[in-house]
Design a protein that fits this description.
The complex is a heterodimer of chains A (166) and B (123). Chain A has one domain. Chain A contains eight helices and one strand. Chain A is globular. With 123 residues, chain B is mainly α. Chain B has six helices and one strand, in the order αβααααα. The mean pLDDT of chain B is 72. Classes of the chains: A mainly alpha (166), B mainly alpha (123).
Chain lengths: 166, 123
């Protein structure tokens, strides 16, 4: 388990970026995703004692808050989420300027992945969760999580090759 | 992570939440304890002030020397009654009439002896 301790700020610093990235996969803008992350983290922190796997529970809280926002927002927001993809104006990653072009390609590739594959990829690569933890967070079988991850990597590899090959 | 693509993806760091959200979390997660401490402090100060105020305003039953004053100095002494009885019935009647008057403004309300012992004169 990364991070940890009884200090919530160390948890938030450790997992906050991955939580936000995870929320941004399904919500239309950065501010809404940050709202979801904040609400999810407060709920997580107050109820974490009952969790079997604490990091998995943290991301399950994010997933639940994202779903609540998706259900409860206005009709306008629901129309936006019919084509839910991370917005183009706000970068998902921080990186040096020399890697900015590659970052743009990776982000574009992520947007083209199916949502369920993208969620597994984000939780595995940036959330640092194992497949059993991802399965617990997303409420799916661990084998399904592993297969979605493989599909996501292959699809992303193809997309990046397509873009970079003239 | 053995896959080069996995390693490349992991090298990109997701953007952290903005600092204002960390401040908002401070308010939501730590604010309750801080508010409780502030309320307890205010209550403690208010209680101290109230006690100090009551302590300075309430009349003390003790005299300046620290003893309780239960004797009305204006009443006739035992010796005076004795003297009055010895001298004449008229003088005794005068003493009794003076005892039958309304209590003085400075007299204690809780307990009033009907006579004052003057031990020096008895001895």
């Amino acid at each position: 388990m990364r991070g940890g301790g009884e200090d919530w700020s160390s948890w938030f610093r450790e997992y906050g970026p991955a939580m936000l990235l995870f929320a941004r996969q399904a919500l239309p803008d950065l501010a809404t995703a940050e709202d979801a992350v904040q609400e999810a983290f407060v709920r997580f922190w107050k109820s974490r004692a009952s969790a079997e796997d604490v990091p998995a529970y943290l991301f399950a809280c994010v997933r639940n808050c994202v779903r609540e926002i998706q259900r409860g927002e206005s009709r306008r927001l629901r129309r936006d989420q019919a084509t839910a993809r991370p917005e183009l104006t706000e970068a998902l990653f921080d990186c040096p300027l020399e890697r900015d072009e590659r970052r743009t390609l990776v982000e574009a590739g992520l947007r083209q992945l199916p949502c369920e594959q993208r969620d597994v990829l984000v939780l595995k690569i940036w959330g640092g969760l194992s497949f059993p933890q991802i399965a617990a967070a997303l409420d799916i079988p661990a084998n399904t999580a592993a297969s979605r991850y493989r599909y996501a990597l292959e699809k992303l590899r193809e997309l990046l090759v397509e873009v970079t090959t003239p | 992570m053995n896959d080069p693509l996995e390693r490349e993806l992991a090298s990109f760091r997701p953007r952290p939440p903005s600092p204002r959200w960390e401040n908002a979390l401070h308010d939501r997660l730590d604010g309750g304890h801080r508010r409780l401490f502030q309320a307890a402090s205010v209550a403690l100060v208010a209680a101290s002030l109230l006690l100090a105020l009551l302590g300075t305003r309430s009349p003390s039953p003790r005299s300046a020397t620290g003893t309780v004053s239960l004797i009305d100095e204006s009443l006739p002494t035992f010796q005076a009654y004795h003297q009055g009885l010895t001298d004449s019935p008229a003088e005794l009647d005068a003493l009794l009439r003076s005892h039958d008057r309304e209590p003085g403004a400075g007299a204690p309300q809780t307990w009033q002896p009907s006579y004052r012992l003057d031990l020096d004169s008895v001895n």
